[in-house]
Amino acid sequence: MSQQLDRSDSDREFGPRRGLWQRIKDVALMDVAVLVKGVDDAALEQFEERLLGADFGVSATLYLVDELNTESRKGKLRSAEDFRAFLAARVEQLLATERDRHLAVAASPPTVVLLVGVNGVGKTTTAARLARRLQAAGESVLLVAADTFRAGAIEQVEAWGTKLDVPVVSGAAGGDPAAVVFDAIEAASSRKLSHVIADTAGRLHTQGDLMAELEKVVRVAASRIDDAPHEVLLCLDATTGQNAVAQARVFGSRLPVTGLVVCKLDGTARGGVVVAVQRDLGVPIKFVGLGEGPDDLIPFDPHRFAEGLIS
Ligand SMILES: Nc1nc2c(ncn2[C@@H]2O[C@H](COP(=O)(O)OP(=O)(O)O)[C@@H](O)[C@H]2O)c(=O)[nH]1
Ligand SMILES: [Mg+2]
User: Fold this and answer.
1) If pLDDT is split at 50, 70 and 90, which confidence band does 18 have?
2) CATH topology of domain 111-300
3) Which class would CATH give 22-94?
4) Hey, which of 17, 114, 125, 205 would you mutate to test ligand 1's pocket, going by the most ligand atoms within 8 Å of its Cβ?
5) What ranges do the domains of the chain cover?
6) Against a cut of 0.70, is the pTM above it?
7) Which atom of ligand 1 approaches the CA of 150 most closely?
8) pLDDT, tens only, 42-57
9) 297 within 8 A of 129, measured Cβ to Cβ
């Protein structure tokens, strides 16, 4: 299944669409004449500033600056080509993970996937786009409108269901989202569907009571199927930069987050946030959003991402 999906995605480019990687490209286009002479403090500082400006975050930036210093002292960076190859390799290495980037599959169906995150990051759109991907791969999907909090959220999921021809389970506005998810798992089990994709209400990571509500959704799913939810996907908005890292920390401390979805990468020239957030949370990026359309969610490929920096 995933191979089939990956093949259809191979035409999608990470960059340079609408200036996608401009800030990172600034990093890759540094004045290498300075570097090859032997890196001096000014060059290291410039490299550091550009990495921070592209949202790589402090930790990854310090690592890359240190590596640049070491490699250059060893005389390994003799040309612009050397420098770009160094950068791509190190960025790919920063994104390496032991964990599987594919969507988890339940030992016995249905596979239960929860989308969580703050308001407006792209949860509902991602739920719909995941449903579409799975459907295209021959899976049978049930969408769940478990955002009972925001006016219009249920209708938004139902509209996607109609558009994609995917069944939707929704609760009453203001109802308990855990009950809606429980009912959806029941329905999917009895209808022998393969996937339950649940959209949840956006919440600020500072809203403790709403975080507790999500913890309950997780507990209730586990009470119905031992290893559910099989995925808790945290959606982040790439345009919010280091704020996304802060959100990831709090959600990660309250919920068993299994994967990250970084949406709106098409809307920022500072894609380094992808590196910052995965490094900080230690949870793999599974998908990235590159537009608002139903097909604009693609599996994250670190190699293509790193190559996109220097192409
Ligand atoms: N450009 C762009 N827009 C996106 C992407 N993902 C979501 N959006 C838009 O962001 C807005 C909020 O998305 P929504 O799914 O409703 O966010 P939610 O509040 O987290 O459920 C909508 O206008 C989406 O079309 C993306 O990858 N790129
Ligand atoms: Mg929503």
Assistant:
1) very low
2) Rossmann fold (3.40.50)
3) mainly alpha
4) 125
5) 22-94, 111-300
6) yes
7) 19
8) 888 888 988 898 899 9
9) yes
